[in-house]
Amino acid sequence: RRTLLSICLVVASACWIGASPAYAQTAAGEITGVVQDQVGAAVPGATITVTATRTNLQRVVVSTSDGVYTAASLARLAWGLAISAAIGLAFGIVTGIIPYARAGLSPFIAALSLIPPLAILPILFIVFGLGELSKVVLIVIGIAPFLVRDLALRAAELPAEQIIKAQTLGASSWQLTLRVVLPQLLPRLLDSLRLSLGSAWL
Hints:
The two termini are 45 Å apart. By secondary structure, the chain is α+β, with helices and mostly antiparallel strands. It has helices at 2-17, 66-97, 99-113, 121-128, 132-156, 160-168, 173-201; strands spanning 20-27, 30-36, 42-52, 57-63. Strands 1-2-3-4 form a four-stranded antiparallel sheet, with helices on one face. The longest helix is centred in the middle third of the chain and has 32 residues, at 66-97. The model is unreliable at 1-28 and 57-62 (pLDDT under 50).
């Protein structure tokens, strides 16, 4: 009965912290183990210890390493910013210098930017699961439309004379993008990423 009570207490404690434990009884009335995430992988630096008697719970100790969670959050943020920057550059250049693409994509991007990211969080959990992927996708959906619109506006502001001169000198579409448009968009991209850090972290 003591073992059954301890197991129940461990499960209840794990539900309270939002993870599942892998436990092992080490002494009479005491169980220690590691904490697992939603996909069953052990959370580094997180352990749980439950001490109980036959009648009451004496102690629940959950020890974690704050540095591990900080590193995981920073990695998640870095992935989200990198993917958003790539999407922002690609669609920003296309919608900024190609009128037909601007006419077709701008309404869709504007409508997507008005959707609160947290409103679609349950859908992301259903589609991508409870792991890190859904959190990275949430960051991308939250800041990518802002980057696309900002970079598209900057590309549309480029002097038409520069593009005409490059085409007159025989520049192809790739050369025009890489040597004329992209160098002038990179500083704006860095500013946009800096401004979106707050919303991406939240």
